[in-house]
Amino acid sequence: MGRLRMAMAFGLALVSLGAIVWCTVAARPVAGPEVPKSTAAPNPWVAAAARADPRVGWARKAATEVTVSRATEADLDPVPEGRIDPRQRQVKVTVVHRLTMAPKDPLIGALRQGTGFPGTLQQVTDAAFGAIKVEGPGLAPTTRLAPILDTDPSGTTARFTVTLLRQVKRSDLLTLDFNAPNATPVIVTSRSIAVLPGEWTVLRLAGITPDREHEERVEFGVGTYPVSMTLAPDSFGFADVALEDDFSWATALGVLTALALVIFLARSLGRGWWERPPNRELVVGLALAAPTLLIPLVAEDWSAVTYVVLFVAVPALALRHAGRVLPTSPPWNTRDLLVTTGLGVVVGLGMLVWSWLHGQLSGQVLLAGGAVTALAAAGSAVAFSVDLGVRSVIVRLAVWAAEAAIGALALALWLRALPTGVYPPDSVRLVLALGWAMIPIAAIAVATRQWTRGAVVGAVIVSLLVQGWPTEWLDSGSWSLAVPRSEPMIGSLHLTPLVRGVLGLLLLGFLMLVLRLWRLGRQLSAIDNPVTESTMIAVLMVLYITPGGSTTLADIDVPLPLLAITSIVAWATARWLLAGPRLALTEPSSQEEHRQLVRTALHKRLLLVAEQELYRVGRGRIGSGEMSMADFDQRRDALEEALRRHGRHPETAFATAAGCTPWFNGVHAFTVSLLLSLPFAVVYGWPEGADLTSFVFDGRYLITLPAFGFLFGYFYPRVRGTQPMTKALHLTAAALLTELSGYLSTLVEPDIGVFDKVQVVGIVVGQVTVVCIGLGLFWEWRIMHLAGEPWARVRNLRSIRSLAAPTLAIVLAAGTTAATSVAGQTVDRILKGDQVTTTAPR
Hints:
Layout: H1 2-26, H2 44-51, H3 54-58, E1 61-70, H4 73-76, E2 89-101, H5 106-113, H6 121-129, E3 132-134, E4 138-144, E5 148-152, E6 155-168, E7 174-178, E8 191-196, E9 200-206, E10 210-213, E11 218-222, E12 227-233, H7 249-269, H8 271-275, H9 277-289, H10 295-298, H11 303-325, H12 334-357, H13 363-385, H14 391-417, H15 427-436, H16 438-448, H17 453-466, H18 470-473, E13 489-490, E14 493-494, H19 497-520, H20 530-543, E15 550-553, E16 556-559, H21 565-578, H22 591-624, H23 629-646, H24 662-677, H25 681-684, H26 692-698, H27 701-714, H28 724-741, H29 744-747, H30 754-786, H31 804-821, H32 825-832
Parallel strand pairs: 1-8
Antiparallel strand pairs: 1-2, 2-6, 3-7, 4-6, 5-6, 7-12, 8-11, 9-12, 10-11, 13-14, 15-16
Helix pairs in contact: 1-13, 1-14, 2-5, 7-20, 9-11, 11-15, 11-16, 12-14, 13-14, 15-17, 16-17, 16-19, 19-20, 19-26, 20-21, 20-27, 21-28, 22-23, 24-27, 24-30, 27-28, 28-30, 30-31, 30-32
C-alpha cells in the first residue's frame, strides 16, 4: 500500500508538472502593441507645389534674415526658474523667413487655408526654407509666430518668424546650421540669407561664398544643400597656447575623499569583524561582483549578465552570509509559507489574466490547465503527507502545493513571453524588486541579529519603492503591453532597473551604517569606541558627497560623483569637535545619579555666586563701617570651606550623557535639529525624485545639519565645551565651516554680484545658527528636565545676559527670512543648484 501511495504521489506531481509544460508549449506569442499610424495631414505646400506651373515656381523668391542678440528679461520670462545660469550667455536667435509669390501661385491659397496650423507651421517652414539649427543647450522650446501675409497687385509676401533661445558658456562658439529644404518637388530653387551677428564675429563659413560681407551683416545665396556658419563672441580672445594645469584640485580632493571614506568604512567595521571568515567571504564575493556592474557601459549586449549578478547572485550571497552569521535559523512556520505563496498566487493570477486578455492562451485552456495543475499538486501533497495523521497539516500542505503550482504556471507563461519581447511592462521590475529584496532582508537580519517578519515586509516595500513610486507602478499602461517609453533620469543618468538597483545598494549601505550606530550606541562605552567614531564620520562624509561631472569610459560619457570638498571639511570638523581636551567626567549610571550630580552642581554654582556677591558688597560695607573685617573673614571662610567640600575641580554635571545611552541622546538631538531645519526647506525647495533612492538623495540637504545634531547628542560628553551652550557654539563653528565650504567656488565667482553672495552667506549662517543655538538651549532644558529641576535655575528668563543666545538666534532667523523673501533667481540657483529633469513622459 505504501508503494502504491508513493506511486500515486509521484504520478500526480508529474501530472501537475506536465500541465504546466503543456500550457507553456501551447502558449502563442502575443502580438505587440500596434504602432499608431501617423494622422498628421500631408504638407499642404508640397501638394500645392506639385500642382503649380513650373514657371510659377521659378518666380518664387525666398529670403531669410537671422539676427543674433542678447536675450532680454522679457525673452527669459517663460524659462523655468533655476535653469538660467547668469555665468553663461543667454542668446536669442530670431529667424525671419520671407517668401514672395506671384498672384496666381496656388501656395497662397494653401497658406490662407492654414491646414493643420499651428501644428504644421514647422512642417511648412522646413519644407520651403529648410530647418535652421543652433547648437547649444536650449532654454525654452522654439516658438513660431503666425504667418503674416502682405498682398498687392504685384504678388504676395508671406513672413514667418521663428525664435530660439540658447545658453552657452562665455568662451563657447555658436554654430548656425542651415539645412536644405525637405520638400519634393522643391518649392524654392534658390534662397538668399542674411545674418546679423550682433555681439558675435563670424569665425568660420562652411559651403558659403558671401555676396556681401561686413562686420554687422553677412549676405549669401544658397541652393538646395546644407551650409553652416560659426560665430565667436566679440569679447573673447583665443590664447596661442592652451595652458593645462598639471595638478587638478578637483581630482586630488576626489581621490583624498575616496581614500578617507574607504578607510573610515573599513575602520567602522572593527578588527573583530574582519577576523571572522564569513565576513571576509562576503567582501570577496562583493568585490568579484562589483566589476560586472561596468558591463553595460562597455558591452551593452551582455547586460543580462549584470542583471543576473545583481538580482540573483548578490541576493543569494547575502542570504548565505546571513545564514552563516546568525545563531538561529529563521522562525518561519507553515502560516508564513501559506501567506507568502498566497501573495504569489495573487500576482500569478494577474499574469494569467494578462495571458487570457492578450491571447497567449484561451480562457478554456487556462482554466483547464490551471485546474489540473492545482488539483494534481494538492493531491500529490496529500498522498505524501497522509501518513502524518494530522488533518490540519495535511490541509495546509495541500493548499501550499496548489498555490505553488499556480505560481509556477504563471512564472512559466511569463518566461514564455519574455523571448518575444511582449509582456506586462512592469512585471520585469516586479521580479527584479522581489529578488533585490533578499539583500535588505539579510542585511537587517545581520544588523539586528535576528530574523523578523516586520523586517521582511519592510524590505519588500522598500525594494518596490527603489524601483518606482506607487504612481508609477499603478500606471494604466504598466500592466497591458510593453510600449516604447523613455526611462526617468537623474542628471544625465537613465534610471533603468539596473541603475535603480545599484543606487538602492548605496542607500542600503548608508542605512547599514546607521543601524551599526544604533547597535553600538545602546551602551555608554560607545562614546569612546574608535569604531563608533569612524562610523559616525563615514555617515557625515557620505551625506556631504555632491555628485557632478562625468568621465569617459570606452567612448561613453559616464556620470560619476565628484567628491566635494564639503565631505573633507565634514571629516575635519567632526574630528575637531571630538578631539578637544577631555575633562574628568563622572558619568551617571542612572537618572537618580544624574539628579544628584545636577543638584550638587547647582549648589556649587550658588556658593560661587554668593562668594562673588560677598566680595562685591563687602567693599562698600567695610568702608562704611557696616561690616568688620572679622565678620567678612568669617563669612568668606565659611564659603571657602563649603566650596572645599565640593572640590576645586570644575563642575561637569552638565557635560555628561545624563544617564542616557548615546543612541537615545543622538535621536533626540537629530529630531530637534530636523524640526528647526524644516522651515528652511522653503528656501531650498522640497525634495523630488522618480523613486525612493533619488528622492532621498535629493532631500539629503534636509538631514545634513540634523546629522551634525545627531553627532552632538551621540558624542555629547566628548564634544568641546563644558556646558550645553558652549558645546553648541563649537558645533555652530564646525557646521558653519562645513556648510559654507560647499559654496566656496560660487562665492569667488566674479560674475555673481556681491549682494547675492551676501544673501547666500546670510541664509546659510542664519540656518546653522538657529539650528545649533536652538539645539543648545533644548539640551540645557533637557538636562534640567531629566534631573527634575526647573530650567530657570540655570537660565533666568528675566536676565538680558541669559537671553543673549536665544535673542541672537531670533535675530538671525529674522534676517534669514528677510533675505529669503528678497532672494532673486541667482540666490535660488546657488542654494538649490541647477535643476535637472528626474521624470520622463510615459
